[in-house]
Amino acid sequence: MFDAERQRLLGSCIWSPNEGRLGYFEAWTDGSAAGSAASDCRTGFLDDDEVEPWLHQQGRFSPRARPGQAGPTMRIRLLMCERVTWLPVGFAMSRSSFLAMETAFRLSAETLPILVANLGKQYSNLRFRADNDSRLESIVLTAKLPQMFQLGNLGLAMSHHLDTGTTLAFLHGWNVFSDRDHVTKEPIVPHAESLHGVMRSAAALWAHPLFLPTVLVREHLSRAEAFKSHLAPKVTDIEMALGVTKSARLVGSEIDASVQHMIRDDGERLRITAFLNTTATDVVNMLGILEWDLQYVKFLGRVNGDLGALHGRIPPAADAELRSIVEYLEFEALSIVSFVGAMKTRLDLQLNVLYNFIAQAGNNLNMKIAANAGLDSTAMKTLAVVTMIFLPPTFIATLFSMSMFDWQGSSSTAGDADRTVVPEFWVYWAVSVPLTLAVVAGWRVWWHFQKGYYENTYLSVKPSEVPRARRRRSEGI
């Protein structure tokens, strides 16, 4: 079903054998020291042209046999490949080496489509013998962890042969060998180093079919635990910056000067908003990935139950130990999911607090604008009233100065130079003062009716808008 997509991806992926690193991990048991992880495992790096000799255990990769003893029984053969590009997905190996590995490990056609996926995916297939449909021969399992560079971006494809108890696996992802985070460039512990430590310490589980998938999810959850410890102080810093902290803490219970400065300062509000949203994004992404981890652990439990029902030849001690580990990982995932969910709730609260602060800052600005507008309105009203008072006298003065009025009396003589005001000057006051009073009174009456109309139209509640029960009470019904 997936072969067409596989062929397309084989052509679109980047195959760069000269970039990144290839490495391997091998573990085996022998008759003298079965389960001795100190002497029965080895690791190393590979060149691309050494992949096929390693796959076929030729040359320096041939099994180590002690004199006089039978050859060792291989338990784990893990090929690890660094991811070298983001998109298209890049492999630190050639296409021919990948195809050789795919054939030698008897992986399914779903391997490459799952490895290049961005979201978390898992796949398992139980293979039965061709001559006996009721007897299991092997199990093929592929898992791609959801992408989040703080937790890891790993994919595992494996097949486990039940008769020999041998697991053949391929691991691909960022920072498998690189000790610098490909995003932040900060030093980190490579996945290969931590995986080697876990695998060496669990020699009793090497022959279990689900050992490597369990180790993979354990690595993912350990990174999640570390990143959770990194996010928790950030959430506390945000709570302290906004003045709203967790319950049972008195620190920050009052809005201090720094919070008031943040409310007023645009740059500080932008900084805390960006910091809060970045942290919230990390928490939301991590929560989604952890929920996938939880489902993946349950998936491993179901696969283990199917193996027990159909195969039934897994050593009881190893199977019981792995079941207990899977149960532990499930509860660990639940614990981290619960903690991260609480952090998300706290950040949601802080987002609401921040938005309220921003709204208060906006309301304060609107109040200042309204106050300034009120001052402007008062000034304009004063100017209009003053203009209205002086306008009638100005009009009368202009009118009386026209040539149609002759204020030069018949008794006046050209030599009457001491006279500066004509006797008829009282006419100006007799007309302008009543006219001014009439204009002011008319404006006041108009304003009274206009104010009442505005209040009735826009400020009063219409009877149709009053609830029916309230109208009945007011009407005494």
TrEMBL record:
* InterPro entries tied to this protein: CorA_TM1_TM2
GO cellular component terms, alphabetically, are: membrane
Answer yes or no on keyword Transmembrane helix: yes
What are the subcellular locations of this protein? Membrane
- For this UniProt entry, which segments traverse the membrane? 383-405, 425-446
Lineage top rank: taxon: Eukaryota
Q: Which UniProt keywords apply?
A: Membrane, Transmembrane, Transmembrane helix
- What membrane topology term does the record carry? Multi-pass membrane protein
What protein does this entry describe? Answer: CorA-like Mg2+ transporter
Native organism is: Colletotrichum zoysiae
Q: What is the lineage of its organism?
A: Eukaryota, Fungi, Dikarya, Ascomycota, Pezizomycotina
